[in-house]
Amino acid sequence: MSTETTEKLNAWTREIVEWHFNPETGCKFWLDFAEKLSWDPRKEIQSFADLHKFGFFEDNWLRSGDIRDWLPKGNVGKPMYVFETGGSTGQPKTRLSSDDLRTDYSNFSTTLNDDDFPKGSDWLLLGPTGPRRLRLAIEHLAQVRNGICFCVDMDPRWVVKLIKKKQLAVLEEYKRHIVDQALTILKRHKNIKCLFATPKLLQELCSRVSLKQLGIKGVFCGGTQMDAQFHRFAVEELIEGAAFVPTYGNTLMGLACHKPYTPEDNYDIIYYPPLPRALLQVVNPDNPKEVVPYGELGRVMLTTMTKELFMPNFLERDQAIREPACDLYPWDGVRNVAPFSRMGATVVEGVY
C-alpha cells in the first residue's frame, strides 16, 4: 500500500472512531463497549493498525439485542433500512443503514464502462431482494445511470430448505419459475440492456434464451458459486460477447470491485475492497492476528468503517489468497474467495 493510501486510510480510521465513540454521535453499543475498556479509543486509535486493540468482532453481536443499539446518535432522524445477511441456518445478522448502499453503488457505477452498461438503459435483477439490500442497491445503480430496474425475487433460505430436504425437483421448478418471470419482462421491455444475476440463475436464463438476441450488453454477476471455472464458462459460452463483471459483496462490507480481466489471471476471481470504507485482510487461520504472505491462502477478515457501521476485525466464513495491489487499486485484494474449509459445515449454494 502506498504512503498516500496509508495516510488516507489512517485519517479515515481516526474520523470513524471519533464518530462512533463520541457521546454526541456514537451508538449505544460502542459507547457501552468503551465504558468497559481501560483505554480511550478516541485517543489511542491513531491508525488502521491500531484497530487490533479492539480484538475480533464477534459474530453474535449482530444476531441479538436491540437493533437501535447500533444507531449512531449522529444519524438519528434519517430514514433507516434494516438489512439481514445469512439466516439460512439460524438467526441472521442484522444491520441498520441509510446512505451506505447509495454511496457504495454510486462509487461502483464510476467503474463501469458506459459502452458495456449504457447510461439510460434499464436493468433486470435476478436474485435475493428483501431482507437483503441487493434490490435497493441495484435499483440505485440503475437510477444513478438514468435507468429503471425490474426485479425478480429469489429466496435463498427457501432454496436451502429444498436442498436439505432433497426436494430437487421442486428446486428445479422454482428455478424455472424465476426465469419464466425474467423472460416475460425481457421480452416486453426492450430497453433492458443490463443484467444482474446469480451464477445459477444466469446459467438457467442463458439455457433458454440468447442474451445477444435480447440486446443485453453488460452482465453484473455475484453469488456463492462465482469461481474461475464459472467465470470462464460465462465469458466463453453463456453471455455471447456481453461484458461480464463479477462482484463480491455483502450487507456488512458493501461492494468489492473485480480487477479488470487480463489473460495472465487465467479467469481467477480477484476482488479489491472499497477502501477506506472497508478493508479485507487474509489472515492465518491458526493466528488471525497474522496476515499471510502474498500468494498464500488464509481466512478473510473484514473491517468496515462508515458512519453507519463500525465493524473491526470480523472473521468471515470465507477463505481466499492474498493478492497484491494493482494499478487501479493500490491496496491488498483477495483472489478466489471460497467458503472457509474449517467451518465444519457444508455451504449450501442452490441457485445462488
Automatic annotation (TrEMBL):
This protein's species is: Uabimicrobium amorphum
Q: What is the lineage of its organism?
A: Bacteria, Pseudomonadati, Planctomycetota, Candidatus Uabimicrobiia, Candidatus Uabimicrobiales
What name goes with this protein? AMP-dependent synthetase/ligase domain-containing protein
Which Gene3D superfamilies does this chain map to? N-terminal domain of ligase-like
